[in-house]
Specification:
The structure is a single chain. The protein has 183 residues and is an alpha+beta fold. It has two domains: 117 residues, no CATH class; 49 residues, no CATH class. 30% of the residues lie in helices and 24% in strands. The chain is built from five helices and eight strands. Strands 1-2-3 form a three-stranded antiparallel β-sheet, with no helix packed on it. The protein has a three-stranded antiparallel β-sheet with strand order 4-7-8, with no helix packed on it. Strand 7 and strand 8 form a beta hairpin. The protein is globular, with a radius of gyration of 23 Å. Pfam families: Zn_ribbon_IS1595.
Length: 183
């Protein structure tokens, strides 16, 4: 038997109710607001697996996950929160599936949805201050030989630009943008 360190032991555990409260606070920091009429009072419908909120004014029903990357998910919020925690390590879907005990398909979807949200947040905030840029080509020239003829493949190097805004300490956040090849 091994008494070694396990990655699974180092992942924080979250209670489903705590996750729901954190999501409520993130979605409505100033308290509930109906997405349709902006009314502040609601009925709490707790007869479902996940809470539903019904506006007292217009009877519009909304949930905590509506309008978020978690919309329509049947995966428990606690597993989503664990996945959010693990995203900082650049984890693969295979390892994520093992660590949060879901199928590979579910882990792949969670991974891609979270990466999409992170990418949207990065694109919404432009780089500022002192910038460092790097222009490179990604990929390679693809050659194939058929009998004695050289045939060029479709894979050609693609130009990319990677930029980082630097703070006073020399660290910063980065962004990358794929260039388009012009003929």
């Amino acid at each position: 038997m091994s008494s070694g360190f396990s990655i699974r032991d180092s992942i924080p555990s979250y209670a489903e109710d705590d996750c729901a409260e954190a999501l409520f606070a993130a979605k409505w920091p100033d308290g509930f607001r109906c997405p349709r009429c902006s009314h502040a009072h609601y009925y709490d419908i707790a007869s479902r697996r996940r809470r539903l909120f019904e506006c007292r004014s217009c009877s519009h029903q909304t949930s905590l996950t509506a309008g978020t990357a978690l919309e329509g998910t049947r995966t428990p919020l606690a597993k989503w929160f664990k996945a959010m925690y693990l995203m900082q390590f650049g984890i693969s879907a295979v390892l994520l599936a093992e660590l949060i005990c879901v199928t590979y398909k579910t882990a792949w979807l969670i991974n891609h949805k979270l990466r999409h949200v992170i990418g949207e947040q990065d694109r919404a905030r432009p780089l500022e201050g002192s910038l460092q840029l790097l222009g490179e080509y990604y990929g390679y020239e693809y050659h194939r030989y058929f009998s004695d003829k050289l045939v060029h493949g479709a894979l050609k190097p693609q130009p990319i630009v990677i930029g980082a805004s630097l703070d006073a300490a020399g660290g910063g956040r980065s962004s990358q943008n794929e260039g388009r090849r012009r003929s």
